[in-house]
Amino acid sequence: CRHTYNQFVVKLPDLVSRDHLQSALQAEGIATAVYYPKPLHLQPCFVERGGLPAGTLPVCEQAALTTLALPIFPGMTADEQQQVVVALKAGCCKPD
Hints:
2 strands, mainly alpha, Aspartate Aminotransferase, domain 1, 8% strand
């Protein structure tokens, strides 16, 4: 198997605000994304078809609130990787 270098999604520690970290990384010129803001069972298409109510899958719901996609692509240089690591460490250590 080979990595597709399409997405690199991390789960943040409970004490780290995703919004704060995303803003801190953006301030450093590092783009991030939240690909899954709602778990599947809370997506409108499933809710409309009698899906599970909020609170039914708490681990899934918490994961949707605490994951963030970091930049990754085949041509990413070691310097670019280091820039992400440094900004990530700084953003995780700063209080809101």
